[in-house]
Known about the structure:
Layout: H1 9-24, H2 35-45, E1 52-59, E2 65-72, H3 78-95, H4 102-111, E3 120-123, H5 126-133, E4 138-142, E5 148-151, H6 181-191, E6 197-204, E7 210-217, H7 223-234, H8 244-251, E8 263-265, H9 268-276, E9 280-284, E10 290-293, H10 297-300, H11 311-340, H12 348-357, H13 365-385, H14 388-408, H15 414-428, H16 433-453, H17 455-471, E11 473-474, E12 477-478, H18 489-492, H19 523-536
Antiparallel strand pairs: 1-2, 2-4, 3-5, 4-5, 6-7, 7-9, 8-10, 9-10, 11-12
Helix pairs in contact: 6-9, 11-15, 11-16, 13-14, 13-15, 13-16, 16-17
Amino acid sequence: MKRYNRRPWRKKEKKEKEMNDKKEEKIEIPISKDIDENLKKMKEILVDCDDIIYREINGGEDLEHRFAIVYTDGLTDKELISDYALESLMHQSRMKPTTDNFKHNLYELSKKGNVAVTEVSEVKSLEKAIDFILIGETILLVDGFKKIMILSSRGWPMRGLSEPQTETVIRGPRDGFVETSKINTSLIRRRIRDPKLKLKYMQIGRRSKTDVAVMYIEDIVNDSILKEVKTRLKKIKIDAILESSYIEQLIEDNWLSPFPQLESTERPDAVAAALYEGRVALVIDNTPFTLLAPATFSIFMQSSEDYYDRWPIVSIIRLIRYLSLPLALLLPSLYIAITSYHPGMLPTALALYVASTRMGVPFPAFIEAFIMEITLEILREAGTRLSGPIGTTIGIVGGLVIGQAAVEAGIVSPLMVIIVAVTTIASFALPSNSFAAGFRLARFFFMLLAAVLGLYGIMLGLVLLGTHLVSLKSFGVPYFAPYTSAVDMASDLKDSLIRVPVNFMRKRPVYMKLKDKNRMKASKEIYNEKDEDNDRK
Length: 537
């Protein structure tokens, strides 16, 4: 008896996948010896691309030998091409006699670097040559040769280095990443002058062909983490990568979680510090944000400035951040639960005061808190979309005016305004915006649970949230490491809830299982080395 197919769409999906795979397979277009045929094929592929410039040039004593250059207007340094590359080619063509070897000589001179550009390479297919044209390189075609030279000539308008707006510090470097990956990798290389710092480029995006640089320190990184990062990147099948968040969402472990599992930063010093800790950096072209993997809960509670200040001050600041986290998450829900279900938990005087402030408020505590939270989220979004000074003014003045007007109108109580203000300020104390956004979303979930079940709802929410965070992993590393993993407590906890003096931070994170576990020698070892040197002298 023929089995009934309950899922006929699976066969259709399989066929569509096979067709898409066939489309993605590139057909290599061979290069002809005839320069006219090569240019004709390129113009057929790049039809209606008016920004592609074709320039044919005759060389030799009698101008009977031909070569051509092709580049993209706006992506190529025209001064480099016209004043240096073309001038070198014309000079070589004039110097060589009109012989049958002219073409070979011109090609070989270009290949050996006699063209005044920084880098020269060759390709053997038109498809690859076109890919180079579209990223800003110039190609050189010589009539009679079945190879094409690639002249390095990228050059386009770019933003200068400036301080990152999202990660400002009082003490520390002021330079930040830009939208060009080459500059960003050079800023990192400047801070890590070690041949063990490796950089591997990948192209992701079937149409955008976005450059993604995978950076790591070879003798420190955990090979299994590095392999997993590369494997996930290779599995990405998408038309275009326009920002680092595309890659972040496509390679993270749990895409349903509101909490980030990769760290994003605009600071070169933060990336360098992460690489020294054995993490992997993904530098993506066309965005100033670099991704760092793996990322844990404790990393998102830290700032670059934590390592530029004295350890007692940093420890206190970190404790304040950890105190701000429950305030930003639970304060409105605690207000809702206590005023609605458990007023007896408050001292009599405070309970009477809360009741008096709520007299005349037409809404229950949940609706009251929900209105204020939504209003502040709208103000936050409006301030973000406006320019710096105006946005800040809108956020501060708007909050004050709306809060005062809401109290005078009797829509909300004065205590509710204070609670929402403290909650908002506490959320700003968290260093990572994406990390804080996850807790801002969870805040509404806790408010709903408090409105339905009171304090029992808050306890249920904490259990669910804790279970979710503990179950998360970032490339095999537990999200709550070093608090929940089998680690060397004496080492890993020195740079978590608090930060001990640098002299005692000798080991890298044990939970990362790195090759080189030590970041610095113990003081005794240093003194022993000095004594040995003195004895030798």
